Amino acid sequence: MDPRWCLVDSLDWLPVEGPDGPREVPLREALLRAHTFTRLAPDMPTMVPVLLRQVLVPVVLDALGPIDPGAWADMMNGGGFTLQQQEAIGRYLDERLDRFNVFDDTAPFGQAAGLKHPGGKVHPVSVLMQHVATGNNTPLWDARLVSDPAPLPVGTAVRWMLHAQCWDTGAIKTAAVGDPQVKAGKTTGNRTGPLGKLGVVTPLGRTLFDTIVLNLPQGERAAGDRPQWDRAPMGPSWQMRVPSGVLDLFTWQERRIRLILETSDAGGAPEQVRWVVMSAGDRVDGPQPEDPHTCWTIKTDKAKGSVRYPRRHLPGMTGWQGLDALLTIDRDTAGYETSGLLMQAAAGTLLGDLPPDYPLRAATCGMVYDTKGAIVKDVLSDEVPIPVGALRSDLAVRGSVILVSEQAQALARAVHHLAENLLRAIGGKPPAQGKGQHAGTKLLHVLDPLVRRFLTGCQRNPEDDELDQAHKAFETLAERAARAAAEELLHRLPGKAFTGRAVTKKDRGKTVTTIYQQASAERYFYAAVRKTLTHLYPQPAIAEETAA
Predict the structure, then answer these.
(1) Residues 256-270: tens digit of each pLDDT
(2) Rounded Cα gap, residues 209 and 31, in angstroms
(3) In sequence order, what DSSP letters do the residues of 304-362 get, joined into one string?
(4) Span 323-336, average pLDDT
């Protein structure tokens, strides 16, 4: 075993950001000095939950034992690991140095020793990067040939190996020699990685230490639950089973992988990874397991009763557009529920363990696959400020932040409907949903910094009168942006929109004629704006104006 490739002390591979800027550090330093680093700083946002789930959180949880609310509160208030906790983590890592060696002969970290494909086939290391085109998908005029892929440093290759365990595409995989479930040299029915099925929500704190603590699931440990490095070394075979607990779930091995070390031409020490072997891995048996890193949609089924589904992030939507789900801690009052980790943070606010002005954030990320799960079509990510007070149903800030999110989306819909009605008034046909450009989407981009500024301001725990003033200021700026968007549409309008167009169609056996005109489109738009902005236009005043 070459100690140079030990992830604990020798290899700089975990990307962090501190007072001196971003750099890479070994595992022990990342944990014991976590309070000095502000955050993880990986290549892609989807890597943040990977490093937390696959390494940092399981090590802390396994080394320190089950975390109860009291221990969680002490850690959040302490701001760093105590001396006893540092010694426990140090002993834990010292006992497992061989299992954290990337190129150990019998149990390389996160890999299957000796894994190989029939005929000695290998894949370029880019196969671990789901967003990079490989094989037949490689562009014709790509800078590198498939036979000569760009190599990666060992630390970077390890990160992308863990990323593939969480986000890899599904469908057919090349078989591994010795896998008894091979069919015609292939393994079919492979699923996407565990995180690919979720809309991932990761709580982020003031420091890397706080982020680790915020991602520690509380509760007793299930019998037989242990991380992958405490299990028997992996081979080419795989099985369908149920995760034994949170440690097993976080370090789930959805693929069998082996990194191939490349030696320099001069015969020196190997320093990079250009080729890998990757085949099918374990599959989860049964329904989606309870995962603390996602929000849930709750539906009632006559046969099954209450059924919970992971909520997926939608392309083109910001994180704050799903703010109601992020802040829902009472499943009985809505058809969705926030993540288990944000539920823990909400409990901490009620007990006073999380200060009301704590700068909590939620990093949302996800991948959009094709219908077979074989191709990544889009990568989604965002980071949303979460006012701690909004996690409590008894505080006014919760209603205000949800209302601001709803108002921004309502104004975008109003502009969208205005554009559609104006287009019909001149004889055009609005584009189908999801096709073409929509005026409301452009307005959302204008409102986005206003919403985020409001959310950040609410993290300062404002008084009720300050909250009302801030909400009114937001509505003032939002109305100005909405009216500017409307004026832009009206300015480009031809004269025939004034007289409009009559559209006749059948509706339930009756002939219905609808007249689309510029005047009516404007009237509906401004009525929608007044109805939406309740602080600028109180509802009783609108009702009296309508009656008059």
Answers:
(1) 999 999 876 655 555
(2) 8
(3) TEEEEEEPPPPTT--GGGGHHHHT---GGGSSEE--HHHHHHHHHHHTTSS-TT---EE
(4) 74
For the segment 97-109, the average pLDDT, to the nearest whole number, is 93
Max CA separation in the chain (angstroms): 90
**Closest alpha carbon to 399 in 471, 341, 349, 318:** 471
Residue type, 27: L
Measured in whole angstroms, the distance separating CA 29 from the mean position of its chain's CA atoms is 26
Mean pLDDT of 327-334: 67
CA distance 401 to 288: 31
pTM of the prediction? Answer: 0.89
Position 327 scores a pLDDT of 85
Q: How far apart (Å, rounded) are the C-alpha atoms in residues 114 and 173? A: 18
Rounded to whole angstroms, how far apart are CA atoms 138 and 134?
5
C-alpha closest to that of 394 among 350, 332, 456, 361? 350
Q: What pLDDT score was predicted for residue 461?
A: 81
Instruction: For residue 234, count other CB atoms closer than 10 A to its CB.
Output: 21
- Give CA–CA dist 539/282, Å, rounded: 57
Distance between CA 92 and CA 99 in Å, rounded? 11
Could you give the dihedral angle defined by the CA atoms of residues 198, 199, 205 and 209, in that order, rounded to the nearest 10 degrees?
A: 20
Q: Provide CB contacts within 8 A for 295, sequence distance 6+.
A: 199, 201, 310, 311, 322, 325, 326, 328, 336, 337, 338, 339
Cβ proximity of 333 and 371 under 8 Å: no
Interacting residues of 182 by C-beta distance below 8 A, sequence separation 6+: 175, 176
Question: What is the rounded distance in angstroms from the CA atom of residue 190 to the CA atom of residue 235?
Answer: 17
Beta bridge partners of 18: 21
DSSP letter string, 197-255: GS-EEEEE-SSHHHHHHHT---SPPPTT---GGGSPPB-S---EE---SHHHHHT---E
Note the pLDDT tens digit of each residue in 280-329. 899 988 777 789 999 988 887 777 777 888 888 888 888 898 888 888 87
Q: Which helix (H) or strand (E) holds 514?
A: strand 510-516
Question: In this structure, how many other beta carbons lie within 10 angstroms of the beta carbon of residue 538?
Answer: 12
Read off the pLDDT of residues 350-406 as tens digits, 9 standing for 90 and up.
Answer: 777 788 889 999 999 999 998 888 888 889 999 999 998 888 776 788 889 999 999
